[in-house]
Protein Cmaq_1209 (Caldivirga maquilingensis), 514 residues
Amino acid sequence: MRAYVITIGNEILKGRTINTNAAHIGRVLTYAGYDVIRMVVVPDEIDEIVWAFRDGLSRADLIVSTGGLGPTFDDKTVEALAKALNLELELNQEAFSMVKSKYDRLGVELTKERIKMAYMPKGAKPLPNPVGTAPGVYIEYAGKRILTLPGVPAEMEAILDEALPQLRVPGRYYYEESVVVRGIMESALAPVVNEVMRLNAGLVYVKSHPKGIEIDKPVVEVEVSASGSSEEEVRGRVKEAIRQLVSRAKSINPQCC
Amino acid sequence: MRAYVITIGNEILKGRTINTNAAHIGRVLTYAGYDVIRMVVVPDEIDEIVWAFRDGLSRADLIVSTGGLGPTFDDKTVEALAKALNLELELNQEAFSMVKSKYDRLGVELTKERIKMAYMPKGAKPLPNPVGTAPGVYIEYAGKRILTLPGVPAEMEAILDEALPQLRVPGRYYYEESVVVRGIMESALAPVVNEVMRLNAGLVYVKSHPKGIEIDKPVVEVEVSASGSSEEEVRGRVKEAIRQLVSRAKSINPQCC
């Protein structure tokens, strides 16, 4: 199952905000059994957001977006989502109750900016926001699932946590382990990485992440990961590959790891 | 001038690594006068990287990528770049000298993994890497500029710093300032934001970033920014819009800011 992550917001494009949301979602979905195949960041513009949802729908089984769900003029995600799906935008009664109850508690009136957060594409299901006000949006379309979340990290995380049990890919497990290799240049470790990949072709993925300075002070973190239908099996494959890697790296530099 | 940012690496898609590179590049390019219009993250797969470069070329004047320049099997960026541009991949003599001199210093041989880092599309210019080994790649194609940088942040930043003077958009300035508004819900501030946008239509951009809890403890950071051909003018526009915003916000809650 393939997942696609969309981040909406000019502040990300301008580098004003680091996109920790995409990383969080990527992590959660990977461990939920998905292959995250693409992430995109688009501005607060309808046509760009529409493009992102359509690109996601053409490539993945699950699309998760963050940002653009609030009460301001540049919160355009649900409008764009409706357009991307050719669905009508309507006042969702369940979402309206959620939004209303939040403001009722404070005794403030429901202005059009507040009611805006209860509009959703026809057929969408609002997801309660335990932290903030704007509900998340869940919709199924052409066999694909779309989850639209707020951009505030605490709100995004809370709604995603709630939705996760339904999103998890049944019988699909991911496992990952890393080993830090010191005193071997990444270029010298490359043939070892290649060999371990060959020995476990299609079963594990090995990637080296240089953390030091290639020539003067080489430190390489090697990540080994696997996905499969048994938790025990993927863990076993990763551990065996790590063992192969460490034994070969030690033959280059016995103090490496 | 429009810029497009590509991040290459499975570790970003899996959320193992937070994409600080894209934020850094977005920030630097915004202040260099670009509109960053899209960011994408793609896996270490040729076809996906080719797609990203082509999507960038079809939309932007400058494309900056990070990741996939190293010595390992999954460093595929230059190969994909050559394919995206329909150019031959060749051993770049200038890049070869750069790579060779790094390893010569240590007296180690130039294995094929090390020489790999000197291959570039025909016509590309290598950019010296003062921190690591793999040179950056600069190439002009169909009136567009492409800058390909390593994924290690210190290396990426150093090469980008060096390249920046040539990339800067002449006579284009960006300025941004923020004000923190307390005790006014984002939904109550929305009409104020709208009004300030209307008063300065096309001149400034105003975006509210909720930082607290909408109903119980509202804290909203309002960002005002402008781009234009005079540094003084954009600064003046932003400061005037901030003044309008603060005066209107204070009429809702005098202690707000």
User: Anything to note?
Assistant: The mean pLDDT of chain A is 95.
